[in-house]
Amino acid sequence: MNKVDFNVYLITDRQQVPAGRTLLQTVAGALDGGVRAIQLREKDLAAADLYPLALELRALTRRFGARLLINDRLDVALAVEADGVHLGGHSLPVAVARRLLGPEKLIGVSTHHPQELISAAAAGADFATFGPVFATPSKAAYGPPLGPGALKSACAAAPLPVFALGGIRPDHLPTLRSCGAHGIAVISTVIAAPDPSAAAARLL
Question: What is the pTM (predicted TM-score) of this model?
Answer without folding.
Answer: 0.96
